[in-house]
Amino acid sequence: MTNFANVERRHLAALFRRVGPEAPTLCEGWTARELAVHLVLRDGRPDVLAGKALPQLPVLGERARRSEQTLAGLPWEELVKKVERPPLYSPARLGPVDKRMNTAEFFVHHEDVRRAQPAWHRRPLLHDEEKDLWSSLTLMAKVLLKDEDDSLVLIAPGHGAVRGGRGKSGTVRVLRGTPSELLLWAYGRREPAEVEETVE
C-alpha cells in the first residue's frame, strides 16, 4: 500500500520549488521558507523542537535558535531537498512510522501552501488517501478540538463520525465533509476548509 505521507512530502517539495521561498502559506503567517524549516526540524531534530517549545531553557533554547538560523540560511533547493528526504536516522525513514506521524502533517502543510496561492483549486483524493486522513482525524480529534466550547460532531459520509469539544455551551455543531476537509477544519484552517456546518 502507498504511504500517503511520503506522497504528500514529494508533492509539497515539488510545490515549494514552483512557488519559491517567499510564497505565502496559511500556516501561522509563515512563508514557504519558514514552513520548510519547521518540517526539516520536525523530521530530523526533535531536540530543537523541544528548545522552541521551552525557549527559557538556556541550552535548548539557544540550540533551537542556531539550528533555525542555519537552516533558514541554506540555499532554497538544498532546504527543499531536506524536506523531501529526511536524514537517515529520522524515524520518518521508516514507512509505518512515517505514515503514522506524518500523514496529517504533510497533507495539511501541503494544503497550507496550495490554498495560500491565487487561483487554487480543490484536488480530488483517492479513496484510500481519504481513508488514511480519516484515521488520522479519529486519532487526533479530541486533542485538536479540545478548546472548542461547543460539542462538535464531524461526519464524513462513508467513513463515520467523530466527536470533540468541551460541550460547555450547550450548543451542538455538526460539520459534514470529506475526511480531508474535516481534517483541515479541525487543524484550524476554518475558512479554506470546504465543510457544511449546521447547529442542532
UniProtKB/TrEMBL annotation:
Report TM segments.
Answer: none
Stretches assigned to coiled coil = none
Give the signal peptide range: none
Q: Know the name of this protein? A: TIGR03085 family protein
InterPro entries, per database record = CHP03085, DinB/YfiT-like, Maleyloyr_isom
Q: Which domain of life is it from?
A: Bacteria
